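Give me structure tokens for this 496-residue protein.
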Amino acid sequence: MLLSACPGGTSSDGSTTDGTHGTADGTADGSGNETGDGTMSGPGTEGTTAMADSSGGSDDTGEPPVGCGVFPTFEDGAVPTSELHVATDGADTAGCGAPDAPCASVGMAAGQAGPGTAIRIHEGIYAGDEFIGNLAGQTDAPIWIGGAPGEAPPRFEGGSVAFQLSGARYVVIHDLEVWLATANGINVDDNGQYDDPEVTRHLVFRNLSIHDIGQGGNNDCLKLSGVDDFWVTGSSFSRCGGGTAGSGIDMVGCHHGLIAGNTFFDMPDSGNAIQAKGGSDDVEIRANRFDDAGNRTINMGGSTGFEFFRPSLTAGENYEARDIRVVANLMRGSDAPLAFVGCVECSAVHNTIVDPGNWVMRILQETTSTPEYAFAPARDGRFVNNLVYYARGNLSTTVNVGADTAPETFEFANNLWYAHDAPGSSDPGAELPVPETGGVYGEDPMFAELAADDLDVPLSSPAAGAGRDEAASAGGDIEGECYPMPPTIGAWAEGE
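Here you go.
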């Protein structure tokens, strides 16, 4: 598990849409389409998930946390040694940044920031299209960019992006609202240095609200390209992209990441809530809540232009994604909550899946081998300890398997399947590519309050104690509670 571009423009990874799933790469990101998705809402910070803060809060004085459902980062225990202030009535003059002489832009303040500096952005509305290059904190002295303690989060409004961060180490982005950017909300990249993992790594994104992004095409709320050792926590994402394209969080060639305790909602026209492709590896997606979040809620893999892989493709076997772990999430709606798309050794464990629209999961291959490069098929996936509460009449089939994949290498074990419209038809049986072991079929899980998203289950539930002991169980459930052993099936450890 985790320890955790080009100036003045948009992302250098070159994402575009294939018109169906928003997963193909090949032309410059941010071109957009001419029409919006029509789902605009008024400004304001959207809700975030209530769970353990992995960073000690916006006052930057937290102690290192311990226990289930808590995710340590390099930020824990660090305290700023200096501050630079940014305000709507500031001025970008030499030496700006004092409380009584703030800068007007984040870019100007960032140009003066060194290890241990907190850039305090005071409440108000700021224009987008900021560029921040080569910002470097240190392990015990990061650089913070975020809202001022005790104030409403500042709002970045409009522009192609709120800001682009190219080349960054030990940086914390926190307590910001972003909306109405036409390309992506926030862009972070490796400055086009695809084979150097040191360029952009050790980043924390927390307490962000990013929404209403793009012009109805492949536009992402948070775009990460070539980022290593990163955390995204306590944030909310909605209305990102459109036309079944765009993502809440889109990763191209990202490694060693944790995305935990976030909410993704009101994204029916998006491609995905989260996508990891282009050589992404070792990313955990844990304890998030997804509500109507994309055509494929989580796309493990995808389709990437060969020139955008990080690291670069080799003469050996390549993959779109490897070791993407989806753990203890609540996933409501979408055509397919889970898609294994050219993903190797990826897993879905302890999730609660409610009313998928067409399939529970898909096993697909969008990038296939060529005479120049060999690509591994989607293989060795795992679907274990998940609770699937669904309408049998809504599904075309439980698992959709595409060509050029290796479905026979997948594992299904100790999942609870309950078709609430036809309990006697709950067993997916031959609709799984391989036989399941330890499955529970047709038994009501006895949710505490389905309508209120309280899907905890009592000790008397058939899900209680019916899971298989998994390494993923040790990280805790969706509310930060430790799983008993043997564990409960689903995203909640269990109620009283």
